[in-house]
Records
---
Amino acid sequence: MTVSGTVVDINGEAIPGVTVSVPGTTIGTATDLDGKYALEVPEGSTLVFSFIGFESQQITVGDQSVIDITLSEDMASLDEVVVVGYGTQKKINLTGSVASVDGEEITKAPVTNLSNGLVGRLPGLIAVSGNGKPGAGSSISIRGASTFGDNGALIVVDGIVRGLEQIDPNEIESISILKDASATAVYGSRAANGVILVTTKRGSSGKPTFNYNGFAGVQQPTRYPRVMNGYEYAATKNQAVQNMGKPLLYTDEMLDDLRNGRIPETDWYGLTLKDQSFQTQQNLSVNGGSEAIKYYLSLGYLDQDGMYDRINFQRYSIRSNVDAKINDNLTISGDFDASTQNNNGSAYSAEAIFDDIVAAYPMDLAYNPDGTIFYTREQHPIEEIKTGYNRLKTNILQATLSLKQNIPFVEGLSLFGRASFGKEYSNNKHYNVPIFMNRQDSEGNTLEIYPYGGWNGKTALNQRFDEYNTTTLNASLNYEKTFGSHELNGLLLFEQFDAQANNFYAFRTNFPAEGLDEFFYGGESQKDANGGSFNDGRRSAVVRFNYGYKQRYLFEASFRRDGSVAFPETKKYGLFPAVSAGWRIGEEAFIKNNTSLHFIDDLKLRASYGVVGNDRNVYNGRIPTFQFLQVFNPSGTIVSGSEGLSSITPGILPNPDVTWETAAISDVGLEGLLWNGKLQFEVDVFYKRTSNILLERIRSIPATLGAQLPAENYAKVDNKGIEFSLTHKNHINELNYFFKINGSFSKSKVITLDEPANIPDYLLQTGRPLGFITGYKALGFFQTEEEVDTYYPQFNGGQQPGDVKYADINGDQRVDANDLTIISIDNSTPKIIGGLSFGGSFKRFDLAVLFQGATKVNRLLDGMARNFFVGGSRNTYVDLLDYWTPENTNSLYPRPWEGYHPNNSMTSDLYLRDASYIRLKSVDLGYTFSDRVVERLQIENLRVYFSGSNLFVIDKLNMFDPEM
Amino acid sequence: MIKFNINIIPLVLVVCITASCSEGFLDREATNAIPEEEVFEDPALMQLFVNNLYLDVPAFDHHLYDNITDESRSYWGGAPQNVVEGQWFADNNPMEYWAYAAIRKTNMFLNKIDGAPVDENRKNVLKGQVKFLRAMHYFNMIKRYGGVPIITEPQELSDDLFVKRQTVDESFEFVVKELEEAAELLPESYGDQSIDVGKANKYSAKAFLGRVYLFWASPLYNPGEDNSRWEKAAAINHEIVESGIYSLHDNFRNIMLDKNNEEEVFGVQFMKPFREHGWDSWAMPDSRSKQDAVRRSPLQEFVDAFEMENGKAINEPGSGYDPANPYVNRDPRFDATLIVNGSTFGFQGLPVYLHVDSPIDGINTPYATITGYLIRKGTDESNKDYYGGTGSDQNWIELRFAEVLLNYVEAKNEELAAPDQSVYSAVERIRERAGLNPYQLPQGLSKEEMRERIRHERYIELAFEQKRYWDLRRWKVAVEKLDGKYFHAMHITENEDGSYTYELKPVIQGPYVFQEKMYLMPIPQREIEKNPNLEQNPEW
């Protein structure tokens, strides 16, 4: 029979492009521009009407031949469930500040490291891209800096504290960012910098669904600093040596030859760095199950090359998440994931190689005419890349068994237990081999064979083995029940964490040949072995209570008590409480019954206050530093006659009272859903006071104390900020589109900090934001000798025209160390960041674009960006060509010099640059094949996409990437 | 039944976490370190602690202290060039020595040692050594800053940390007292105790005290010209000379190479592979270099200071000096100290050419001498293993018997109205060992003439041993000898007939800036900022 009809939305407007199909068959069509459809179907069929952004409807065809349908827009966001600490909650019931993102959104564009996928997507999340090395992630902080030292968020993956880099992004179901104290207090002593909760995918009942996601692509460097060519180098070098009173190095004739290309030059960039490097990521997963057993199994592979040969990152990962429903009340889950990561590189670090590429002398050859290695004396990046290696292989295993038991005789009460083992083994093999440079005279006769690098000119093998084993146990009671208008929810949890680590290190040198890179080949004369161990432990209890009345008034209270090995007996335990409340204004009659306010679907005001802790500053990475004990550590070797004698040296001065940092966080948020979900917004204002900040009083305690200072709980910092996100989704005919904007601004202020007793007020940190930059205030350059003579005495004198002239800040008519001042309040961590993404779908095409930007960020040029010919001979960035000469008096840089100049290299605002930027972070264009094509291939869904990351950046820095 | 079994699992887990396994779980000790109590319970660990204190003794210097005097200059610029040009400040002083971290360690040791279960003899030895080391750190600070805060106990954070500087005299008095006590506690020798080779003994403490007294008596620290300080300096140095414990090594060239010889009074011990330095590497001409080279280019002024072998200065009548062939028949220490154009050097046994336009090593080519000279002193020419900052293991001889003799003669000459025979014979002992012929000084020298002879002898004998800079300061002659001066390089041109033409030119780097205020170095700026009781030296 034929069925026809019109599909309209709740305003009666026709919706074109709605899919009308009969499930389990190939019968289907789509509505036309007027929303009309007609379809031939067997009698008694079920019709499904579906369209993105609307709730699907099923209609069983009776005897009617005309079926008109009104589709209502998808209000799924009202039912959205988000993962919170030790549980899940409906988003509408949240009283804390939580942002979340789906795994699908993150992996739509290729992401090899999870942290990179979060950049620009979530309000309040500050992520700065890393160095672009293969496998490298971004550094992530939540709501900006509010303590000294480590501001990194706590990362929790399926209830276990781990690193984001250990997880294949394809395995992610969702990520939640817990920002305020009410959301994070259940993580107590580690929550002050915020918490990132990662949840991996699980199985669902139904037939097995295989999912393959793969990409292969190339990456290019965003920006390299450019260095001088031969002529520029020689001309500038001549200026520098002339300024230093040395004889000129290049005659006019040589300069002329260089300018006209008559002297060969080596393009060190071109010979080392690749224009593009390859990367691929493949993931195959299957998910499915029965009522009793559900499974998600995943196999992933990542291979990422770097910007030169022999640097590469590989990750092989497997995951098995299985849920077994033993009976109506008992579910046992086994989660196992294992991965192997290979970080392969040259014996020289990427930083050293890059440094040497930039430093290499343009007129050096790379190789002699006979093919032997040219004698460059200082560096040879081409050979550095090829010689030796540094390989780190890390094996990670996390095995978790958990069970959930509903207590049958108490409705709503359940028991949850989890035991998890983490095993990490890493083996680092670093093999250093010298580069034998062949020094030749102009006739090609060998003058000497010069061993460069290696370990003191010899082969050497460093090998290191590390193991890190953790056990996390937790058990909890959960209660969840609704009594009429009252919703109750309770949690009581105990958790214990134990870590044991060992490391072993050995060293041997003088290997007979380059290929013989095992210890037993090594020479006897110089060898070393070393190792040690450490352990860590925590024990905690958590209580949380939620109450909701009529789904309108929401209340939550929670606290965690934490104990840690890192603190002395009297300070071992800390208590971290939080309260919060929410008011769903949208449910009140005065809004619901007001027709002019019908555009409001949901509106909620929430507020929270809590105290959370931070113990990172008594850890050195994963190692608790036991700052309350005076200990002695192994130190160097002395000699007596022909014997080597070992020694021990005191560690840091103990602080018997060392304890947690605490952050008191207040947060007020307003969130809403308007116009049938077309507009969603969320605004949060927060105020965070971090006190008892662990800090060495290095600024105020005279070094005559002679001790390495312990961290003490005394500093206090305020951090205030606002963050918002705005999402607009709509469709015009067959075009669906969305816009998402998010932004964050935060401002810190030091309340208490140790200040040196004798510094002027204008250098005090108290009352000012964290991390401002001090230096001299540059007044430009001395233009004449007369100007030098008539100006105040500056340092110990000796300035020449073209040297930097500094301001006399303290008014004592001389310029010296007492004239340091604040030259910038902003530093390299941006204070304002934002992200804008938009996209949509049209027919079978879909598009997503993400922009990200930051401002209120300043960078201080240093090293090669500040000095000419660092170390005497290294090449120099072209930006420094704008240097002072009597003819170029209004220049960016002072007169050239070799390396550090005692007057001109001082930190001053001359070298301060605005590092604001707007970056096209990713573009992703996809095409979904039609069902007909796909069915022939026996797959459910096939999408191909083209995607690009970091395609361009708008900034003022120019010299190098603003995020670098 | 099955259900019951399964239910019990989480209950057991909860019970375990909350009660039974709680005791001690969070009470742990660091496994990567040793608690302090254990250190002072165990003589072996105490010895390891004292070993560490010897690591704080300064030894070989890469290229600073010799390159900021009238001995040599550094091709490499950097810190020594900044010092030469007067570009050093309270917040950036390459010569800074604020040794309170090392001093705290000595204080921790001395604070705990008395109650420790060690036999009395060993306790005295260790105490003596640590007191000696502490005195050495204080002395190294006093010679830079004048009076410094004297701290003898390990301070706690709750103590008043705003310490004051003692006066110069109080500071010296403290060092003197400590060295006297150390000398009391220390044994005359360690016999066959192998772990104590090169460690401080009774005589090294006294010899060091001799140096301290000499400084204290010197014009910079003795503005009141208290002659009794010269007397004390002469007496204590004389005691060492007379004791016969030390003597001059017969071969000047090999003083640093023949390890632990009779001339070493106190030093820092090196032995590959345990502890190495780069002395040989740093001295290399570029043609033989491995990752470092040419750290000292001796100045023409220094070269000219060497007498002829006959004991006459080059400008003295009858010296036999030939400006066209200037490097022959000189004081034998000349060849043991310097590499000149054409000198044979290194295990290859090949000459090194430093003249203008000589390939690789010619003056003012990259990585080459900037004066026309290089140094040979103390280098092990058989060493093939040198590389960068490693590969050498000569001991750093901080104090050797020749200095004791020179300390004695200087003090005695200043003490007396005119030098006595003991002064003559001690100076002549050094000149005789040097190989001068005749080695005798002219009789009847006045006090002032003898003073110049002694200063000359120190200049030549102790060159490149980090002594000259401090001598120029303590004599208060740095302004006169350095300030405003251009020092010189020798540009040698090879003629077509193979002969050489010698031309003197100012060395790049200069003029030297040594202002009056620089006799006392500035207290580090960050310390002035932190401590309101700490007074800065004048004019800084």
---
Amino acid sequence: MGLKSALLNIYDKKYKKLMIISLLLVILSIGYLGYNYATTGELFKKGVSLKGGITLTIPVQEKQNLKQIEKTIKNQLPKADLTIRELTEAGKPKAIIIEASDTTPDELIKATKKTSLTVEKGNYNIENMGSTLGQSFFKQTTKSIIIAFILMSIVVFITFRALVPSLFVILAAVSDIISTIAAADFLGIKMSTAGIAALLMLIGYSVDTDILLTTKVLKRRKEGGPLFERTIKAAKTGLTMSLTSLAAAAISLIFAQSNTLKQIMLIIVIGLLFDIVYTWIQNAGILRLYMEKKHGTH
Amino acid sequence: MARIKTLLKNPRIIILLIALLLGLFAVHPNPWNKGVVIKSITKNSAAAMAGFQLPEKITPMSREKIISINNKPISNMQEYYEIINEIGYNQTIQIRTNKKTYKIITRPQIERIELNETETVNITKTIQINQTINGTTQTINKTITKQEERPKIKEKITGVEPIGLRVANAPKSNIRKGLDLEGGTRVLLKPAEKTSKETMELMVDSLKQRLNVYGLADVKVTLVTDRPGIIGEGTQYILVEIAGATEEEVKDLLSKQGKFEAKIGNKTVFKGGKDITYVCKTADCSGIDPNRPCGKNEEGWICGFRFAITLNPEAAKRQAQLTKNLKVIDDVLEEKLILYLDDQQVDELNIAADLKGRAVTDIAITGFGKGPSQTLAMQETLKNMKRLQTILITGSLPVKLKIERMDNISPTLGKEFLKNAIYIGILAIIAVVTIIITVYRKILIAIPIITTALSEVFLILAMAALIGWNLDLAAIAGIILAVGTGVDDQIVITDEVLRKEEGTHIYNWKQKIKRAFFIIFSAYTTTMVAMTPLLFAGAGLIKGFAITTMLGVSIGVLITRPAYAAITEWLLKK
């Protein structure tokens, strides 16, 4: 019990300091994306589905020397922009994924045949995305995220009919998405259309917990109980929610064989972790400051 | 017993049970389904002549099933092919299906070879020398019968013509697996120029026909749009999905766009497809051109071909309009009729003087082929002719299409993905249940959670089967995430109902559940609006994800979560 009450004590008494941590996380994420933009002209690395190129998936049974494969293909196709990854299922190698732009599928397959991989008709997947289509997908999906945010904001405003607390909810969701994009990029993930879809899903997940918190703290004020206790109660529910979602997403991430599923789940896992910080530290903190200013300390 | 009765009388449980029952009808599962079903019927084939028909819209389980052939029962594809491959031509086979019994008369496969020797035949001609375009309408009274030499044609029977049925193993349920899980090729095509919706639909139709003519199994051609508006750019795409075809086959097919146009003085007279009502393919009006037989020049051999086609009256009128004011030089008009295939000139033809200003519907199309020897040149010529004929019959595409995206998914990998997804689903549910039992310290709570999670998955699949939606990887991700939000909401409900009462207000069960649903509905609405933009973006390729997620959360909020609340109340209320 000692640890639990100590944690609760920190959460209760030092919530302003905790909020600084969450603020730093947001600043760090924005800084990271800004640095990316300044150096590369893009906020984050895009996968072939958003910029055009070829994805070749070849099943394997054992560990492969990725460096050697990359070197061999690079020798054949010096101009191509290559990324080679290993797809694992519970740690066991399942497939090699080669992403390449500035080459043709035929050339890539020819070059890959020179490596240690067995490339036989019918055993591999190849996806080829035109670069104009990729760019248009990117534009459309970016717009989708912005529109999703606007629509979500309207729903939140209607739900709470209070401007400031609604803005806190939206702020938490924005922070969550920004940090998730930054962290995913930092981990070397190249964003695909599936990844963007996951981000949209994450808006829903992220807002869930914020709505739970705001409802309990704001709407159920008259039910009595000190504000902090109401926050803790909401947090218990919310953390159980995050825990189950995290467990399901983490299991899918570890065991999924498909690249699409893996990317979706990885983004959900990162986003849920950030959501804990942005809901229970950032949003709970500013909501507390706001309530205390408005209604006095309970 | 009385307690179970009260549960079953609960309207929320009744709604869930009815939904599950309807779902069962939609999915129509039958794990013991055996035999082969008919997937498609080739046009003009022996099977089509015997009366086999394929309805436009059909659910997998209602496909016509073959019961026996010549009274031998058929239970799998192997048995089907064993019997079919043994049958010779000009035989009658009796196929009994679950609908009726058909009699198919097999046809011989005939190969027509033009020999090097020629024969003299009597031909009724309306052709003037040096004129390749000619009318055979009654008003032209220039029909003459003359003796002519033309290549001898040898007809060789090479085997049995395929009867024209494409079959597959009988499905186990109405759930359709997408290309991601079944393997095949998916191509996203974009017109090279701005095209009206009507034209796009026409292209979808003719692509379907052409892909079917080339004998590819299981072709799905759909028109997809990034809807106009703020998200999409209003771009129209054609999505071609072909199960079991290799990338090369499809690419080869699609790269030959087959835009056929005939022009006089740069004005189009007719186009392949809708302007042409009939194309002759028989030896009497198609083959090596008697007026331009094989000849030798500096480069090698060159042969001409010709075949008759019939234009629709509009095209004939256009031809009359365009030729009306042309001058006549040496019995032919000053402008030539120039034939283009994919914007490349194929041939140019003189127009006979008597065709000036006349609306003629029957005309001849010509072209040529080259080769190092006479035989090779002849082969090349006949190949070119066949290709042109196919393009003209099946309707060429009015606009060129560009391949924007091409995916080829191996069938073995697809099967692995499906198995893997089921495995992940089971593991995820086990993990979630373990956590919830640990948090609430109540084993009984596992029952409603597992029941609702499984009902949700089943109802999403049933809805997908009902609306004919294909299950692909993105859809599976959507199902996992929808069930995930479902569990989140169940936790909100559980917390509201299990919470120890504190403070001034004491709520009854009804109020508690109402309070939980305030949070659930707000969260549901935000998820719905956040996913909506995806329905309109990305040429429909990520639509599956958005649709299944939205379907899943809707089914959850409207059907399974109220039922969960009812079961939890029933189980835990003291």
